[in-house]
Amino acid sequence: MEDLIRTALEAAQGPGVRFADVRAFTAYRYEKLSVKNGIAEALTRTEEAGIGIRVLRERGWGFAGTSERTPAAVRRAAERAARLAAASERTRKEPVPFTEERDLPHEGRYETPLQSDPFQMDAEEKIRHLRDAEAELHVDPAVKVGRAHMTFWQEDKWYLSSEGASYRASLTHSGAGIEATAVGEGEVQRRSYPTSFGGNFAQGGFEFVSSLDLRAHAREVGRTAVELLTARAAPRGSMDLVLASDQLALQVHESVGHATELDRILAYEAGFAGTSFLTTAGLGTFRYGSPAMNITADATRPGGLGTFPWDDEGVPGQKYSLVKEGILVDFLSSREMAARIGRTRSGGTARGDGYLRTPLIRMTNVNLEPGERSAQELLHEVRDGIYMETNRSWSIDDKRLNFQFGCEVGRRIRGGELGPLLRNPIYSGMTPKFWSSLEAVGGPETWRLWGLPNCGKGQPGQVMRVGHGAPMGLFRKARVGGPR
Fold it and tell me: Are both 243 and 117 inside the same structural domain?
């Protein structure tokens, strides 16, 4: 493989080429297992390998990839990338800006620390784990559907560039979850653990799945789904809102993470993923939210789904502030997009979904930093309000400005105490106004790092695994609703 990578890089570098790099996926493995009502519903395993080559000339990029691992095939792919770069120059008059990076890796090495490699485990053992958890969901005849899921990814990547950067990285991601669907008279309710849409995910092995202890939480999940069938409808109006960590993490993803991607801000994703309400002119002055809002991008945090040592342009993973005390202070960026606004360094967030996709700006672990208050202290700040937990549905416009989120669980807060369950709670708002209503965030004991495995972007589409850490959060006078 090393010989093939060097062959590809050499073939990509001809007259007029400013920069070239090669990403070789020596192995990309994916496995998904699912049990529904005691029956193994899915057992999917895929594995692929290939090489992707980028070429940058003065005014244009070219990209090509191949799954054929022969010298002739990689030369053809490299030459095709070079021809595409030359062709793209005809569509541009200005040079493509590109940062001159320092601290590039040379013979870098990284491997996810694993206690138990999920790809070395017997499939029957994993299915048994899921069946045991799923069986516990059926606490009542009203639970009509129980599901338990596990998903694993492993990528072994080799990177080499014309600047002399080189590294090898092996990343393993794991996750799992359960959900119960209860059906009553004219009502269907779902409850999930540890959160919805497949559960929680992290960088690590099967030990992370074991730590979720799905079976121990399953009966509570089933009971809550049944209780929601007869719970009172969530109230409508303007009131204080407390969001649990998992829901606040999704709020960060949709209204901060995507909004701060510089390619969206500069309209390079307008054709498919959308743009952003943010502008480069607002950097350092735009009030995104209240002083309690501190957002960081952190590719260095151990165990994160958005953690990596170097991005797909050879830039080291970094930690830096995006929003500081409510003020917009930085963007997620790549080498080209950072240079377009006069930056000398990339934010190190360029990643591509496999060898057949060119890198785009993608979130790392975009986190809302914790405060100092305990969960109880946060609730005691609320005389009359509502608590919401675990996403059920979401909608947000292409500029990441107007949004609506529905949650699986709500509870009325009166006098600082949580009341009975409420069904189908909803909240909505406009991003800067909503974040400006953030009164306080919970302390470290309320903060949790969540993994989102299915962040979509790009055309053709790419799916990336990203992370978000969040505490509990208290928002004043939010717009909330429920079924009429």
Answer: no
